[in-house]
Design brief:
alpha/beta; Dihydrofolate Reductase, subunit A; 8-stranded mixed beta sheet; 6 helices; 30% helix; globular
Length: 182
């Protein structure tokens, strides 16, 4: 059975999006070479990707562009070549190697997990992640805690979840990467 992993940037007070649904605050630390190298290595660690519609549209608008290839060539190459899934009822995906998930989300993801293949990583996509948490489908979480307090916004967990810390790393920019098993 494949593992379903979540990668999410979160504020120190526990929000994945601010009160306007924005995530621009989550890009802190880009000027920290150590953090940038870690992000690049993490992005190229393999597996298939799963997105909600909003995150997919942001990714699709950037990664296939010449700007992405110039700024982060290895990450752009990996993002464009990897198999991707998008959970949406309103779009037709155009980004290479993207497949639309059909039907009810938890059933479609359960079928993916039960199929042969590499692990699946959900990037961002907080609304999708909340549904997958509720369905008990998430195996592990990798959070990057961004040193900003938003005061309000959207939280990731729809219910109480007990997690077990398996790894941590602190970066000079103040970001902290935490990996938990569900």
């Amino acid at each position: 059975m494949r593992q379903l992993k979540v990668f999410e940037s979160i504020s120190v007070d526990g929000y994945f999006a601010d009160s306007n649904g924005e995530i621009d605050w989550a890009h802190a630390g880009r000027d920290d070479a150590e953090f940038a190298n870690w992000v690049g290595g993490n992005a190229n660690s393999g597996g298939e990707l799963l997105f909600g519609r909003k995150t997919y549209q942001m990714m699709e608008a950037f990664w296939p562009t010449p700007m992405a290839a110039e700024q982060m060539p290895e990450v752009a190459k990996g993002m464009n070549e990897r198999r991707k899934y998008v959970a949406s009822r309103t779009i037709i995906p155009a980004w290479s190697n993207t497949h639309l998930l059909q039907g009810e989300l938890s059933k479609a993801v359960r079928e993916l997990k039960d199929s042969n293949g590499p692990d699946i990583v959900v990037l961002g996509s907080g609304t999708v992640v909340a549904q997958l948490i509720d369905a008990g489908l998430v195996d592990s979480y990798q959070f990057v805690i961004i040193p900003v307090a938003l005061g309000s916004g959207r939280r990731l967990f729809p219910k109480d979840c007990k997690l077990r810390l398996v790894d941590s790393r602190v970066f000079r920019c103040g970001n902290v990467a935490l990996t938990y098993a569900a």
